[in-house]
Design brief:
Elements: H1 2-9, H2 12-38, H3 40-61, H4 64-71, H5 77-102, H6 114-133, H7 137-160, H8 166-190, H9 199-223, H10 225-234, H11 236-271, H12 277-285, H13 288-309, H14 316-343, H15 345-363, H16 370-390, H17 398-418
Helix pairs in contact: 2-3, 2-7, 2-11, 3-5, 3-6, 3-9, 3-11, 4-5, 4-6, 5-6, 5-9, 6-8, 7-8, 9-15, 10-11, 10-16, 11-12, 11-13, 11-14, 13-14, 14-15, 14-16, 14-17, 15-16, 16-17
């Protein structure tokens, strides 16, 4: 028994999950601290700032990390990493141009360092992808924690100086992002990365990223469009409340994301003919029970949080149900998305564009109601996954398609009951 436990603790999947969970846990604690000490309005401002950082970071990445996932096992290590970083330099310049165009319309704190923050975040994402692809799970876990542990160090430091506010918190997080960049690329260098230019590979990466650039923007917006809609229609305070409920339920999301990152590596190997489809099913079957247990843990967390830490309002459990469906939906979304991207990225991004058109169209009929905005957003995501599943006819993914439609049925029945 002890040997099995010890073997599990040393396994890649355990380290990936622990790394992601501790990273999210730290973020969750910081948001709770802001909520309790500063209130929902300041939490909303904090969340909106990092929405913008995430948007510009996505622009700076281009399709670099997707390119890395697709060709890592078929190209030279030094050449593929070099091409990814050179591509990100190119797209960082493009994102800076976009930033200059929209600068005067951005209403947020510390807008002057936003683009630098975003570019650093883009470059910091690449080493984590490399750690996974090279099965360096221990380093993934350590750096996932290190990447967020600075936030915990920052909080008592701010209290000692009596400077705890959103402005100073973001400024110190920016400093920690710089330190993280130095440490991550130092270790990437230790693992064998040196600049080795392959013009053909760089050209393919840039052309792919340019081809996908409009779709990448739409994808990034669509992933957070619920928060943008809440901010636009209801303001910072509503965004603060919604983001906190979202963070509670995102325990499931981060667990599923961690598992699916592992499955994505296997799908990449299947695409490169490195492993068989049986390996995917064996790995996935071990994860179903884990997801069920994490759902129970999330419910207990939600109950304790809303009852004892901060009352998030009368609509808490309604929003909780809708978001729980959304978080579990990510399991199917990640699998279908990753598999189809490896086969044909154009199908995937055209479907993402369809989702944005649907959601923006429905927004015209939405009243200023938080529950309706969120329900319509999640419904549009179910439509995405349904369309993705339509293009998948592989036998080894048949079970996932059936489970997806069961979840969709539960979501619709729940919606009829709520409204």
């Amino acid at each position: 028994m002890l040997s099995k436990v010890n073997k599990f603790i040393k396994s890649n999947i355990f380290r990936y999950v622990v790394g992601d969970f501790l990273s999210v846990g730290i973020s969750f604690l910081v948001s709770t601290f802001i909520l309790v000490k500063l209130g929902t309005d300041d939490l909303g401002k904090f969340v909106f700032y990092f929405l913008l950082v995430g948007l510009f970071s996505s622009l700076a990445q281009g399709a670099a990390n997707s390119f890395l996932m697709k060709y890592f096992y078929v190209e030279d290590f030094k050449e593929i990493i070099s091409s990814v970083n050179i591509t990100m330099f190119f797209f960082s310049f493009l994102s800076f141009i976009v930033y200059l165009v929209v600068y005067q319309y951005i209403n947020t704190v510390l807008v002057n360092i936003l683009i630098i923050f975003a570019v650093l975040k883009a470059f910091n994402s690449t080493p984590f992808v490399v750690f996974r692809l090279k099965d360096l799970s221990f380093y993934y876990m350590v750096f996932s924690v290190f990447y967020r542990i600075g936030w915990v160090i920052i909080l008592p430091f701010m209290f000692l100086l009596n400077k705890f506010d959103v402005y100073n918190l973001i400024l110190l997080m920016f400093v920690w992002e710089i330190l993280s960049f130095i440490c991550l690329y130092f270790y990437l260098y230790r693992f064998g990365f040196k600049l080795k230019i392959n013009i053909g590979l760089i050209k393919r990466n840039i052309l792919l990223s340019l081809n996908l650039f409009p779709h990448k923007v739409l994808k990034t917006v669509s992933e957070n469009i619920d928060k943008y809609a809440v901010k636009f229609f209801l303001g910072d305070s509503a965004l603060g409340i919604y983001s906190m409920i979202f963070k509670i339920t995102s325990i499931i999301y981060m667990f599923i994301k961690s598992l699916n990152n592992e499955l994505a590596v296997i799908l990449s190997k299947i695409s490169s003919k490195k492993v068989s489809e049986i390996e995917f099913n064996k790995k996935e079957n071990k994860l179903i029970l884990s997801i069920f247990l994490v759902n129970i843990l999330t419910f207990l967390t939600a109950y304790i949080y809303n009852g004892w830490i901060y009352n998030l309002g009368n609509n808490f459990y309604t929003l909780y149900f809708v978001l729980i469906c959304f978080m579990n939906l990510q399991f199917f979304y990640f699998i279908f998305y990753n598999y189809l991207f490896l086969k044909s990225h154009k199908i995937v991004y055209n479907i993402m564009m369809f989702n944005n058109v649907v959601f923006f169209s429905l927004l015209f009929f939405i009243k200023k109601n938080l529950i309706i905005i969120v329900y319509v957003y999640v419904l549009s995501y179910f439509l995405i996954v349904g369309l993705l599943s339509f293009f998948i006819d592989e036998e080894f993914l048949k079970k996932q398609k059936i489970c997806f439609f069961i979840l969709f049925f539960i979501f619709i029945i729940g919606g009829i009951y709520v409204f």
